[in-house]
Structure formats: structure tokens, C-alpha cells
């Protein structure tokens, strides 16, 4: 039986899985993330069980080098994560078996899953923004993952500070000047003295959080003109959040340009907890399609 | 002799021109911009002189509808410019002669000229940002003009206000919250009581202007990862400006991601005053290539 493989590489765990030709999951396993060498040993031991793998999609925590022209293509870039800086993930996999691999970021994987499961029409554009421990974006422009000199790191969009926000910011690079520094889970936790999950619905925290996410939505709108902006990650699990983002977006944007109806434009992720794995399978599939 | 045509539609004048197969300008003419009907009468009278036009590139002041799936494709959208809202520019040209037309914005035309004259490698990415009476961007992503639900209007990126700036802003939609509202020529003129052109090099105005342009450069960098950000329009004629933008970019960005060397990354336009017309010719040419 022909199989596709998935490697969803996260900061706390790696999920590996195989599916059949109809994208039905045959098996999946979770591996705690250790250093590069040990983690990839376990990943390879997992896939060793399967002879007939046709292609593997790898969606990896960033920053990674996805520029095929670069000397360090396929590697993890500088990261505070112990035992990962410079680790050659793609090289390791190719040395194991010379298969087609689709190599991209975790957010690109999730964006691709949303795209392939019908969030937008084929060849249209979307932004997938995850708001959790970090903030990151996967961008699909006219049916292709957008990248240039490297992959987007749109968690670091410059922000206008909310007038009621006195927090010093959490980004080691941009402090309180960027989206991640102001709106990621750890920023909320440090600012309010409790986790995002524990803040009550009527806390002013949500108005401020929505303000920043709405600014990002405006920036995406004026730059990319996407058909949808999809919010994933832990923080948007809070049901009151996206309505507040739509309201703030509407106030900030002042209807300057045509967008789809906001209820269809600023939306939660629909592929849910399987997004990562599913994205990898679809990536593996598109790699195969491109080759043949 | 086979010719290509160019229509550079600006707010104060339209420039029309024809070139030969080697992109050498055969003739050009400037037409003062009146309402849609009158201006296009003059445009058509101009091209009536030439029998053998193979294709025309049209680079038009925005907002315009460039979404081929839209009912109003080819028209000017709502604009304060008298006699232009809803005017069907492309329809008028097609009714005149059924040629291949490349229909896009003025900034896209200029971006395309930069791309085709070698600002970046083929299939790479650039942002062309014009800072004049308005602020607008043309974006080339992997060798294609980027558009989605419509064309970019990246002059309206959300900004963090400079701490020394108390100006109320100039954007009718976003006041002091967006780039155009804070950094366009008219914003500078109103804020400082004299035009950008008349401000001395050591005026604090330039530090503040550079701050906003650097924020935009950071936003483009984290979203699009372009190979170059090119500044055009009247305000960057000021030679001290781009060095200040590079400095502010460097401080704000804190080397968070790899970029090309800043002297090659944040650069002035190189095609100069011919950019608009040249862009139209290249657009006409790519339309022909796509067809054949
Ligand atoms: N229902 C909820 N409401 C608000 N915040 C939540 C909710 N559930 C989880 N979170 C927050 O989401 C963050 C974790 O996001 P998640 O995407 O799961 O993490 P990671 O980025 O590490 O994968 C934490 O800051 C947590 O407080
Ligand atoms: N050398 C200069 N230094 C600073 N500003 C300049 C200079 N030359 C022109 N400008 C400014 O550029 C603006 C006009 O930009 P331009 O791109 O020519 O206009 P438009 O957008 O209408 O085509 C005006 O605000 C003018 O003050
Ligand atoms: Zn940051
Ligand atoms: Zn604006």
C-alpha cells in the first residue's frame, strides 16, 4: 500500500504519522522533543516501520532555512532551543531515504491544510495566523505558499501600542514594538499575572488583545488582500476573541477597501487539532504532484 | 513596424507612448488629467495614429478593480477624483480595439519596470514603495505581481506613532494611524508648515519620516521577505532620507532575520522618471508572451 508521511515538528513534541492514498490516517505517534539528533533518531525509527512511503511532508518550528538557493537549506536556523541550532533536518531525512520531501514551517503546514480542505477557492489567498506561545503566519498567495528570502515571520509586525497598555513587551528583539511581544500567550501571562486561559471573558485584556490582532489583520489586508484571515493556536480558543477582533478591525480599517464579509473573513481554524498532520500529508501529496 | 503601447494614468497627467520591439520609445505625449470621458477621448485619439499596436500596458492611479472575477473589473473604484468613480477604462479601450491589455496600478507598473530592468534576480521578490502625494506599494512575489481580493494598498499599513510626533494625521480613513496619514508629502507639509521639498536636511522631520518608512520596511520584511525594498516618488528624492531609513530599520528590526545587506536592500528607484512608461511597455510585452 502506498503511503504518505507527516512530520509535525513542534517545540514540545513531534507528531509523526502515515496515511493512505485517500488521506486516511493509518498510524500516528507523538515523540517528546529533545535535541535534534535524538529527536530525529526517534522520527527515523518510526518511519523505518514502513517500506512503501512515497513522500513526506515536514512542517517544522521556525526559524528554518527554506530557501533552496541557500547553503543552509534544510537546516534549523539560530534558535534558543537546545541542540537544534544548525541541525540539518532535511539532510538527515534524505540520508535515510532519498524520497520527495516537502520542507516548510509549522504555520505553513497548517495554512496548507486549511487551503486544501476548502477554506478558500483554489488559487486564491489566505493568511493563517497562530497565536499561542509564539505568533506566526503561514501565507498562501494564489494557491502557493509565500516565501522569499526566507519564510514569513509575521509575528513580528510593528504595532501601535494600545493607549491603555503599559506592558513592557515580551519579544527579545522588539520588546513592546511587535505583535508577538504584545499579544502572544506569554506576553498576556506576564502582563496580567495569569495565563490567557485563566483570564475572564470581561477582562480588559481581551479588548487589548483584539486591538493588536486587528492591527495585524489590517496590515495583511492592505499588503496581501487575502480572501480569509484564519486564526489558530491556543489563545483564539477563547470564543469572545474573534468577534472583538472583527469589531476592532472594522473601526481601524474604516471600510477603506472591499473585503469579504467580516464573519467570513476573520475566522477560526477549521481543521482543528489535526491541522498540522493533515497539512503535512497534503504537502507530501503536492510534492508528488509537482514531480510527476 | 510592430509597436507596444503605454498608458500611465496619473492624477495630474496621463502619459501615453509607443515603443518598438526593442523597447525603444518611438513617441510619447502628456495629456492633462480631466474627467474619465475626456481624458480617455484624448488617449484614444493618440493611439488612433498607430495602426500596428500589438498590446498596451495600462498603469493607472488607484483604487481600480483588477480582479478578473469581479463585475467591475477594469473600472476605477470610488475615488474623490471628479468624473472617474466607476469609469470603465479597460472597457473603453477594448471597445476601441480588441487588443491584449495589461491592466494594473501605477505602482505595479513601476515595480514591474524595476523588476524587468534587473533590480532582482528573475523569480525573486521586491516591494516598490512610492512616497509622494500618496503612499502606495507594488509588490512582486516570485516574479509575479501580487494581488488577491484586489491590489495592495500598503500605504495604509498601521503605524506606531513616533514619540516626538504630535501631528493629527492626514488620512481621511485612518487619520494618524496609517503610513500615508503620517508620511505622505501632504502630511509632512501640514505637520511642518512647509513642503517636504522645502524642509532643511537637519530638520527633525526627516528622523520622523524615516521612522515611519522603516516601520513599513520591517512589516514588508516579516511578511513578504523580499530581496529588495525600492523607494520611489518625490519625497525620497531627498538624499539623506534612505540612509536614515536604513538606520531606523536596523534599530527597529534588531537583525531578527537575515536580509540582504541594507545598502542593497533599502534602495532608491533606478529606472527614474521613465519608470512608469517603461513598466507599461514591459507589462504589454508580458501580456503578449502569456498569450503566445
Ligand atoms: N480557552 C483559552 N482561552 C484563552 N487562552 C487560551 C485558551 N486555551 C489556551 N490558551 C492559551 O494559549 C496558549 C498556548 O497556545 P498553544 O497554541 O496551545 O501553544 P503552542 O504555541 O506552544 O503550541 C497559552 O498562552 C494559553 O494560555
Ligand atoms: N528633493 C525633495 N526632497 C524632499 N521632498 C521632495 C523633493 N522633491 C519633491 N518632494 C516632495 O514630493 C512630493 C511630491 O511627490 P511626487 O511623487 O512627485 O508626486 P505625485 O505622488 O503627485 O506623483 C511633494 O510632497 C514634494 O514636497
Ligand atoms: Zn518581535
Ligand atoms: Zn490610511
From TrEMBL, chains A, B:
Entry EC no(s): 2.7.1.4
Main enzyme class: transferase
Origin: domain of life: Bacteria
A molecular function (GO) term: fructokinase activity
Keyword match Iron-sulfur: no
NADP in keyword set: no
Keywords: ATP-binding, Carbohydrate metabolism, Kinase, Magnesium, Metal-binding, Nucleotide-binding, Transferase, Zinc
Catalytic reaction equation(s): D-fructose + ATP = D-fructose 6-phosphate + ADP + H(+)
Reported cofactor(s): Mg(2+)
UniProt similarity note: Belongs to the ROK (NagC/XylR) family.
Name the record gives this protein: Fructokinase
Organism, scientific name: Fructobacillus ficulneus
Amino acid at each position: 500500500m502506498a503511503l504518505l508521511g507527516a512530520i509535525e515538528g513542534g517545540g514540545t513534541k513531534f507528531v509523526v504519522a502515515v496515511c493512505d492514498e485517500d488521506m486516511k490516517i493509518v498510524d500516528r505517534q507523538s515523540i517528546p522533543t529533545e535535541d535534534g539528533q535524538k529527536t530525529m533518531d526517534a522520527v527515523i525509527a518510526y518511519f523505518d516501520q514502513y517500506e512503501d512511503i512515497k513522500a513526506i511532508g515536514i512542517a517544522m518550528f521556525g526559524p528554518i532555512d527554506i530557501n533552496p538557493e541557500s547553503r543552509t537549506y534544510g537546516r534549523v536556523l539560530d534558535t534558543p532551543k537546545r541542540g537544534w541550532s544548525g541541525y540539518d533536518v532535511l539532510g538527515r531525512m534524505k540520508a535515510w531515504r532519498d524520497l520527495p520531501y516537502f520542507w516548510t514551517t509549522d504555520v505553513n503546514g497548517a495554512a496548507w491544510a486549511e487551503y486544501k480542505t476548502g477554506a478558500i477557492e483554489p488559487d486564491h489567498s489566505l493568511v493563517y495566523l497562530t497565536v499561542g506561545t509564539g505568533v506566526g503566519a503561514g501565507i498562501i498567495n494564489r494557491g502557493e505558499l509565500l516565501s522569499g528570502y526566507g519564510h514569513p515571520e509575521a509575528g513580528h509586525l510593528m504595532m501601535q501600542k494600545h493607549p491603555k497598555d503599559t506592558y513592557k513587551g515580551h519579544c527579545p528583539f522588539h520588546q513592546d514594538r511587535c505583535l508577538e511581544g504584545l499579544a502572544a500567550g506569554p506576553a498576556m501571562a506576564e502582563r496580567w499575572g495569569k495565563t490567557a486561559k485563566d483570564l475572564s471573558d470581561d477582562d480588559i485584556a481581551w479588548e487589548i488583545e483584539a486591538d493588536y490582532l486587528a492591527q495585524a489583520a489590517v496590515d495583511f489586508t492592505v499588503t496581501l488582500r487575502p480572501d480569509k484571515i484564519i486564526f489558530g493556536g491556543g489563545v483564539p480558543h477563547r470564543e469572545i476573541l474573534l468577534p472583538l477582533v472583527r469589531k476592532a478591525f472594522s473601526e481601524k480599517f474604516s471600510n477603506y477597501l472591499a473585503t469579504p464579509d467580516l464573519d467570513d473573513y476573520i475566522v477560526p481554524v477549521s481543521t482543528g487539532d489535526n491541522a498540522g498532520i493533515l497539512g503535512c500529508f497534503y504537502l507530501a501529496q503536492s510534492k508528488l504532484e509537482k514531480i510527476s
